[in-house]
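Reader question, answered in our methods column.
A reader sent in the components of a multi-part assembly and asked whether the whole thing could be modeled at once rather than chain by chain. We filled in our standard form and ran it. Here is what they sent:
COMPLEX SIZE: two components
ENTRIES:
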Amino acid sequence: MKKFIKNNGTFIALIFLIIILSFLSPTFLSARNLTNLVRQVTINGIIAVGMTLVILLAGIDLSVGSTVGLSAVVVTLLMQAGVGMWLAIFITLIGVGGVIGFFNGFMSAKFDIHPFIITLGVMTIARGLSLVLSQGVSIPVTNRTFAEIGSGYIPKIPSLIILVIALILSLIAVFKTSMEIKNGDKVRNKAKLTFGIILSIVGFIVAFYTFISYQGIPIPVSIFILVVIAGVYTLSRTRFGRKLYAIGGNEKVAWLSGINILRSKTMVFVITGVLSAVSGILLASRLNGASPNLGNGFELDAIASVIIGGTSFMGGVGTITGTVIGAIIIGVINNGMSLLGISSFYQMIVKGVIIILAVMIDVLNRRKTA
Amino acid sequence: MGKEILEMKNIIKDFPGVRALDNVNFTLEKGEILALVGENGAGKSTLMKVLSGVWPYPTYEGDIYLDDELVRFENTREAEEAGIGIIHQELNLLPDLSVAENIFLDRHPLNKFGGIKWEELYHNAEKVLSRLNMNIDPRIDLGDLTVGKQQMVEIAKALSLDTRILVFDEPTSALTESEIKELFIVINELRSSGVSIIYISHKMEEIEELADSVAVLRDGSTIGDKINISEVTLDEIINRMVGRNIDDLFPTVDFERQEKILEVKNVSVTDPFNPDKKLVDDVSFAAYKGEILGISGLMGAGRTELVNAIFGVYGKKREGKIFLKGKKLDIKSPADAIDSGIALVTEDRKEQGLLLDKDLVMNMTLPSIKNFSSKFVMDTHKERTVTNNFVYKLNIKTPSLDVFVEKLSGGNQQKVVIGKWLITDSDVLILDEPTRGIDVGAKTEIYKLMNELVERGVAVIMISSELPEIMGMSDRIIVMSEGKKTAELEKSEADQETIMKYATGNKGAE
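And here is the structure of the entire assembly that came back:
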């Protein structure tokens, strides 16, 4: 039990946070508020999934916020110019997210420059570009369908079906992991199994209550969930994920073991760039327009989510699930404090304190086990 | 030899789940050189950590007497003040500070404003260094010295603290032959001046040459009392260390040289920091199926650079041609080399061989990751099965496949590195110092494994700084000096003197 608390510290902190807030504010647990909260988490969460991969490689990407802004501007401008919605989205994902990511990754890996510097430069360039393209003013969205992406819902009945399928899949995954453990000589982790089952069911109930009793699953949330599933699968099951852990663990060892560092690093930054573009498009759609300053400071929330989620800044250690919990914690804090009427000035201070606390706890834990 | 200066009595030290030291007893006399030997994990380092206050009193049981007086150090500083110094395997110095500053790190002579009295500092440093007969300018940066000289500075630092007991932990592992000789002279002089020395080493020749007596540790206990070196043979010491007979340290098998597998032609590498210097200078050689090719030479002779060049570490900057089974290879990176069927067990397992905070499975399947996955997805079951096989085959001692490799002992870590390259099933296996810093038992196992590989048709190339190892294991020996190949000797022509002659660049009558 002690070990369980230690390994799932952030998760337990999240539960406590939710309990406290539900006492302090009666509206916190309402389906409407929870739906809102999840939607807020989505924008940051999608970026944070990419950021997890970057930080796993002991890197950092400061340009994600500017990529969000530039993507929003580009996608709305393209549609204004008469380009079809899907084509505009596609061009933005590849032309903005993909290109920025490629530049970040290739430059830092090829010339061995710390990504902090490259992405700092790109952050400024991309922000400047969005100001130039938009001429410094907001661009309205004219396409009705486009607005649906960010603010629409999957209807209740299909939502319900999706949730049930998700529950079944997650239970299967939990059992499969436990079966694998049985086949190998790994010690069977009963606590983990029970925890997995409880988590699946609780997650299902919360999701059911939140979405079905309100308007269904918001479309951005479904996209976020897909991104998370893909991320978890990539890191835990694929060759690419394995390479990332190896490079983050010790780049030299990984290289001498035949791993193409340049390719993997570039790939990770491309993924992060594209995910940032996804967030930018969702945001433009929800706000029904793009302002050139959109996404300002988003990199900080994304990095904070990853760090609170337990990913090591030194690289090599971290999970997507941790990051999702981190993103939810940040979302809950923002949302809860707004509900309690605390000014956003204080919110910033609280967030900063939590980031430092999270890292402190992590460092102390590691020192104890070492 | 004089009176007893140190006695460690019934020392017990527990770590969670393991008893690292179990009733260790030994004594040290004034002016004695005591060799402390034992396999890796036998408890030598732990014992020295207890002695030097790294593990303070209540964390261990037992008594330490200095000059018949019970001492209980609460930190390393107290041990230093009592006159106990340690020269660690990895030097504990700051390369960007001057030699003098390193010696008197936080004990600078200060004037009344708190400024450093530099001239006095340098003068004091010169005084200490002259005790070692060392001609080192205390004003230059430590980083500009060779490793051997840096070690002398470390010794000077210990002496400046009025050290009476000086512990050397594997001091020669990074030194050249001449530096080792210099070190031994210094150690002998220290003994004559009354300093007592505890000398930890894996190298039996050194112990024979240097020590007055030997104490053996095995599994955390002292095996018998310390013995006078003149009353014991090396075999007996090794027997005590491993608790079993090692009839033959080098299990040589006679193989027949078969077809040529690897051929290297005119390989050169230019020093990236000094375009006038060649790290490897026009080296050509061939490796055959059915033999072990040894590469000998002193530190800095370019041996590691040569095999790194073959393995693609220098990318396009390497000159020369490499052929495998008659086919010309285009190796631009380690990935290319691995794909062509060349494996390299790197010299530094902690920095280049292992992902220390990852488990055995991940470490061992890394170079052959393609064989353990479909296009994208890992086959974790196959991974575990294969890893498990190799753990068993290599006799790697580990509680499970899921422990981080940093928790394993040095010998077992080395086996993991070798294992990860065996799984690639390459035609050529290059081993760079495969037995450095590992215990005798693990060494022999690695030698047997090399023979097994040769039998299976792998061309094995081994770099080693230990002459007995090179001569015991190789069928053919290449000697390098200053980046050049200076000799290629058949086993029958090779003896210590001949190899040393070519390694020092002295081509004799030729």
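What stands out: Chain A touches chain B through 28 residues (CB under 8 Å). The mean pLDDT of chain A is 88.
Send us your own complexes using the same form.
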